[in-house]
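FOLDING PROBLEM:
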Amino acid sequence: MSDQTYQVIARRWRPKQFSELVGQDHVVRTLGNAIEMNRIAHAYLFVGPRGTGKTTSARLFAKSLNWEEGPSLEVPPDSEIGNAIMEGRCLDVIEIDGASNNSVEQVRDLRDECQYAPAQCRYKIYVIDEVHMLSQQAFNALLKTLEEPPPHVKFVFATTESHKVLPTIVSRCQRFEFRSIATPLIVDKLKEICQAEKIEAEEEALEVVGRMAMGGMRDAQSILDQMISFCGKSIGQADVLEVYGLASRQKIESLAQLVAGADFDGIIGTTDEFSEHGIDFYRALVDLSEVFRELLLEALGSKDESALSPEQCVRVMDALRDGEDMVKMGLSEKTNFEVTLFRAVEAGRTRSIDQVIRRISGMIPGEVKKKRAEPLPSSRDEELGNSGSVSSVPPGEPEEVVLEEPLVEVENVPLPENSESDLQPEEKEEEAVKTDDENPDSQPAHAPEVRQIKDEELIKQRISELPSGIRGIMEEKFKGDFVSIEKIDETKLL
């Protein structure tokens, strides 16, 4: 096959029927029902990312409306009008590039031309690609024609930035949202292409290509075409990683572990390794965010306290996303990549309030936790006493015990040996009096010993020295035997 006749895979494998369109089943179903029910609108707006099939769908829709025996969703491959539309040779299907035909004069010419009937087809269809590139004056010139076009005219607009299209234009169209194509669907399509082209490709290599395409089938087919030129008939994962400067899945997962474990030395070493092998730092951040997304999904149903919590995973992903623009647009990709990872580490180390509360709750002794069931008296309860005041807390709900001071573990520190000996006798007496006043029921730790007299002759002598009145009262009232006695101060007794 010569260079003049060669077509790239993206063109050769462009869908020729709605059944070949991948990942846009909702669009196919809606347009098919509209054709079968003869409910064809005058204007359509196709919105979606690049390479998802917007322009292709516009051509297929024009083909379904204008082929010889139509309108119908499926068109035979031998239809001359259908083939002419798909090849861009049909005079009644006009494709316009909005970026190069955005002036108001060109739109006015289009408005004048659409008044004429089609030459060979049923409808005259205008397909305006990248319609958001039209100027505001051009949009305004198109409004009246777009609202009330001739019955033989249909408009199909395609754009990747719908927010730049005037609301007055959008309101006059039926809007179709083209979604990003899932990676498994892209991989399946690439396998089909490789089988038809007799190319041996590892499934891991096709998965890498699918992830690089980021939902665009055209991008995936272009990457595959380039890899065939590089590798020939056999494509491996290592080849794709080498050509596009990507890190392997294992390297990205290892880097995620370093970020989660706050291993700064490991992060710096991995960054140096990426720089030596020419790894795309921006793409590495995107892949790293995908790994943390998977960790987030695992953390949502996990009760492992040692792993990252869902809130920590979200903070890490936010830090990585904030650093993508800095890595992509900054002067030093390597430095910005390291700074982004360090910020992600700090974001991951921050504990949530719930985690801190649970950790503090685990440190509270069990005796304090039991007091949660006991209601604390309020100031009003103290004023009323026990007059039967009703608590403001509903029954069945225990009151929370608020610890005004943090719990601190105090180690037993031995006192110096001369702590008591340094005290003077007067200081000891004052300290004993203060202790008795504060707690009258408590006994002093070192009570003075009672001096007892056990000599019977001395006891009798002391009893005889007592005043007669006191001696009589003691003998008659207490009826006790005097076994010991101290010297009694008469003034205190009286």
The beta strands are 43-47, 93-97, 124-129, 153-159, 174-177, 200-201, 234-235. The chain has a mean pLDDT of 80.
